[in-house]
Amino acid sequence: MDTAPSNAKIPRAPSGKSWQFNLRLLEKSLHPLDRFPALLLALGAMLAGLLLFISTSDSIPMVWDEGDYIRRGQLVQSRILNKDAPQNASSPPLAWPFLNVREGHPSGFIYPIALGEWLAPASWSPLTRYRYGPMICFSLAGGCLFYRLAREASSLAGIVTCLALFGQSRLFAHAHFATQDGQLVAWTLIAWAFFSPALRSWIACGFWGICLGMLLSVKFSALLVIPTFWIAVLFLWSRRAWVSIFISTAIAISTFWIFNPPLWTEPLEGLKAYFRLNLNRQENFNITGYFLGGYYDLDHPLPWYNSLFWLAIVLPLPWLILGLFGLGHWCFISIRDRKDHCFLLSALGILAVFLITRAMPGVPVHDGVRLFLPAFGVWAIFVGWGTHHFMRWSLCEFSRWKAASWLILFGTMLGGVHGAARYFPQNLSYYNLLIGGLRGATDAGMEPTYWWDGLDAEALNWLHEHTPEGEKIGFSACSVQNLQLLQEWKILQRGTLRHQPGAYRWYVVQNRPSGMNPIDQYLIANEKPAFRKYIHPPSDDWGPWKLDVPLLEVYSMEQFARAVQAIQQAKHSEKN
Questions:
Q1: Do 417 and 298 contact (CB within 8 A), yes or no?
Q2: Is the pLDDT confidence value at 430 over 90?
């Protein structure tokens, strides 16, 4: 496919009509921005993203890891801000539950959670206050991407990149959570955005080193990102670039050391434990995943094509197509001009390293796309790049159909963000039309949900209305920290734990096949639930637009007792 070079002159529409004048204004968005306008608009993009996340945070339920990380954030606040840690916190008062203990996560991601809650207005809900820091990080990443794409390509590329980042349904959800994954995406994109300036400016070099250090301090998988920048520098053959990346790497290592207190006194022992815990998950974190009707874990690796398959069915179709166009265009121009587009080589490297690593044996398989989420953030870069060059090509080749080209673009943008709006607030259940939406994915053997985001206001209201005071609600495989915090915040107004008074009235099951026990499986197969939670209730919608797959099901304790009895009888029959 022939493409218009970046300096090609787009034919001007003849003057004399107001709509033609408007088209000329739109054509200005296809040219690179100067530094100050790009910075101003990048700040606007960041603010718009942050306001969007804040306004929607209360509607998105607490998900699995948030309760645990919020408890750890409270512990960090007690250590840094001299705030009283809650007595029922999961970690002992003097422990530092990161890096060399538990699952071996570094502690950089907890600081935005703790400091964001401290800075957030007291009038906000507790959950949104703890999400404030991660939401700032993700919004900052959007602003950085806008600035880089607006400077390298055009303001249109920057706008579309932000839409593809903020408007991807699953990324939109993870941007809110007080967890690591959204922050891992954010710091990966921020580091990528400052890569090119760091090779030209010593100030940017220092800031890039700090960004790399923050990235390393978020999650162990961030170690995969650093080599991609070194490989990109190989294509420059510049002594200045090599000096810059050496300095930035040294700053990154220092930043990682500062953000992880266990390294202050015993750096070698701390690092040894860090690598041991992250490279050996079989003991405590061998969590099963469900993929195309099969169950997989560390002993039964996912098929090699799983990451590409996930990419194809989770990206909104408009973003998938435009991203492929952007990749194709970059591969074409890179043969002629590898130096000017070294920043895209690093993006391709980040994308490839996460997709390839996910396909290797021995990699944790649980939670859908969560473990290689940065690949979807990087894809937004190629969506913006592809949109920019597609519009330049179409306006040059079909100059008489300019209005139609812009209308098609606007329709494509709406199609890209439509899924995030339609699946809200259960955005983690999003599947695109290529697999038939949520209904098609479920029929194909994919998990409808995985992180308890079906326990939203609608489900809780039903449980409160149908559970008399003094009785409790039982949950299957739900986070104890989540339930404790929801009760402390008065969001969950009934008891849930064994030591709490009262008899159980209901048993709540999440529709995650890989997380079900035999009791859950029996209930779903043989009993009719008292309540089902859908994203949208069953209706006359057809085909891939149907969202009538239950995410949560509620059963009575009588049904639960029958399930236990049936399973015990089956086991007894097998023994005899």
A1: no
A2: yes
- Give dist(CA 31, CA 37) in Å, integer: 12
Q: CA 253 from chain center: how many Å?
A: 25
| β-pairing verdict for 472-475 and 504-510 | parallel
**One-letter amino acid identity for 17?**
K
Distance CA(402)–CA(484), nearest Å, equals 57
Instruction: For the chain, state the CA radius of gyration.
Output: 25
Q: Residue 444, exposed/middle/buried by CB under 10 A (0-12, 13-18, 19+)?
A: middle
Contact by Cβ (8 Å): 198, 208: yes
Q: How far apart are CA 39 and CA 37, in angstroms?
A: 5
C-alpha 351: how far from its chain's center?
A: 14
Q: Are 342 and 235 in contact (CB under 8 A)?
A: yes
> Tokens 């402390």 map to which residue?
488
Q: Which two tokens stand for residue 523?
A: 């209930």
End-to-end C-alpha distance for the chain, whole angstroms: 70
Host H or E run for residue 142 = helix 126-152
Return the amino acid letter for 124: W
Q: What is the length of the chain?
A: 576
Give CA–CA dist 166/383, Å, rounded. 13
- Cα angle: 53, vertex 165, 45; to 5 degrees: 60
359: exposed, middle or buried (C-beta count within 10 Å: 0-12, 13-18, 19+)? middle
273-300 tens-digit pLDDT: 999 998 887 666 888 999 999 999 988 9
Please state, in angstroms and rounded to a whole number, the distance separating the CA atoms of residues 182 and 53: 12
- Per residue in 539-576, pLDDT tens? 766 666 789 899 999 999 999 999 999 999 888 887 76
Count of other CB atoms within 10 angstroms of residue 341: 20
pLDDT at 280: 85
Distances in Å between the Cα of 51 and the Cα atoms of 39, 176, 283, 295 are 18, 12, 42, 40
Q: What mean pLDDT, rounded, does the chain reach?
A: 88
Tens-place pLDDT, residues 53-86: 999 999 999 999 999 999 999 988 888 776 665 5
pTM (predicted TM-score): 0.92
The secondary structure of the chain in percent helix, strand, coil, rounded to multiples of 5, reads: 60, 5, 35
* Identity of the residue numbered 315: L
